[in-house]
Amino acid sequence: MSRVYFLDIRKKYKTDHIKLLQRLIDKSSALKLYSKNSTCAIKLHVGEEGNVHFVNPLYIRCLTNVLKTTGAEPFLTDTTTLYAGRRFRADLHVQVAHEHGFNFAPFIVADGLHGDDFYEIDGAKIAGVFKRVNTIFFVSHFKGHLNCGFGGALKNIGMGCASRGGKLDMHSGAKPYIDRDKCTFCLECYNYCIFNAIKKNKAVTIVDRKCTGCGGCMSICPEKAIKFRWNAASGDLQKKIAEYAAKTIKDKKVFFVNFLTSITPNCDCFHSNEPFIHPDVGILASSDPVSLDQACYDMIKNAVDELHPDLDSQVQLYYAEKFGAGERKYEIESV
Ligand code: SF4
Ligand code: SF4
After folding, report:
1. Which ligand lies nearest to the CA atom of residue 190 in the structure?
2. Residues flanking ligand 1, CB < 6 Å
3. Fewer CB near the last or first residue (10 Å), C or N of the chain?
4. How many Cβ atoms from other residues are within 10 Å of residue 274's Cβ?
5. How many Cα atoms sit within 13 Å of 188 on the Cβ side?
6. pLDDT tens, residue by residue, 260-274
7. What confidence tens digit (pLDDT) does each residue in 183-214 have?
C-alpha cells in the first residue's frame, strides 16, 4: 500500500500555502532522491495561452527552491502539443512559459523544436530529454478531462512526456464526429485543423484517415457540435496513456505532486477558463502516481463521474497498476 501525503487546504492554517507546500515535501520522501549537482527535470504544464487555471508558478518556484536545497540543479520541462496553438512549437512554447510566470528556472521543451526528438522504449516514443535525466519531479493539475474523465499524474507522465509521434499513437483510436443538428457551419473547425482533416461542402465532415484524434476542433467549436465516440475511444486512449506512463518512469527516480485545486472540467490545454466542477480540496504528494491519482479521484469522484457519465475514468488506474506504474491501494497521511 503506497503512502499519499495530503495537505487539506479547506482548513485554516496560521501559515501560508507556500510554506505548507514546503512542509508537505519535507515530510515526504521526495528529497532523498536528489543529490549535489544532479540534474533534475520538473515536468509540468505551463497552461495554454488564455488559460489561467494551471498550477500557480509561485508553487513551482517553491518546489524548485526546495529541490535546490539538496544541491540538485532543477529545470522545468514540457513537450510540444499535438493540436494547433502556441505550444505546438518549442520556441513559442518557451514564450508562453515565460508569459505565464515560469521564468525563475530554465525551461526546456523536452521533445525538440518540432516535437520529433524522442527515444523508444518497446515502441513508446518518449521525449528525448527524459532519456538524459534520471530524476523527474512531476507536478500535475488534477482536473476533468474530455477524453479520459480526469487528468492527473498519469496523464502528465503518459501523454505529457510523449513526443508528438507518441501522442499520435495514443490518439489514433479516437476520432471525433460532427453532430449535424448542432453545427451552424461557422467553419471555425475547418480553419483550425492543421491536418486538413475537416472538409467543407454543404456541410463540414471529418476525414477519419487524416484525423489524428488530437481533439483540438472539439475545444474550438462554439456549438459543442464535435463529439467523440466515448466508449470505443476513451478506454483505448486511457490504456495507452497508462502504458506510456509505466514505460516513461521505469528505472527513473520519480516523485509526484498533484494540485487538487481550480478543478476545471477540461485540461490546461484549453485556451479558455471554465467554471470549476468542484471546490478546492488540497495538495497531494506521493512516490506512486497510481495511488496519487486514485486518492485524488476518490476525493472528487462524484464531480468527475457527473462530467462524463458515459465513460469509465478509472480505466487508466486499472491499466497503470497492471503495467507496473504503481498500485491503487493507498493510505493517506495528513500533513
Ligand atoms: S466549429 Fe462547430 S459549429 Fe462551426 S462548423 Fe465546425 S462543427 Fe460546425
Ligand atoms: S479533425 Fe481530427 S486532426 Fe483535425 S482538429 Fe479535429 S481531432 Fe484534430
Report:
1. 1
2. 178, 183-189, 204, 221, 223, 225-226
3. N
4. 13
5. 15
6. 999 999 999 888 788
7. 999 999 999 898 899 999 999 999 988 988 77
Q: Is the CB–ligand 2 distance for residue 110 below 6 Å?
A: no
The single-letter code of the amino acid at 309 is P
Residue nearest to atom 8 of ligand 1 (CA): 183
C-alpha 32/C-alpha 278 separation (Å) is 34
Band of pLDDT at residue 36, cut at 50, 70 and 90:
confident
| Ligand 2: residue whose CA is nearest its atom 2 | 211
Task: Count how many residues are written for the chain.
Answer: 335
For residue 188, the ligand 1 atom closest to its alpha carbon is: 1
Beta-carbon contacts of 38 under 8 Å, excluding residues fewer than 6 positions away, are 70, 71, 72, 73, 134, 135
Torsion angles phi and psi, residue 225, rounded to 5: -95, -5
Which domains can be identified in the chain, with CATH numbers?
2-172+233-334 (3.40.50.11440), 176-228 (3.30.70.20)
> Cell numbers 512516490 label which residue?
287
Q: Closest Cα to atom 4, ligand 2: which residue?
A: 193
Contacts of 69 (CB under 8 A, 6+ apart): 31
Counting ligands in written order, the one closest to the CA of 183 is 1
For the chain, percent of residues with pLDDT exceeding 70: 98
Question: For atom 3 of ligand 1, which residue has the closest CA?
Answer: 183
Give the distance (Å) from ligand 1 centre to CA of residue 262.
29
Distance of CA 252 to the CA centre of its chain: 19
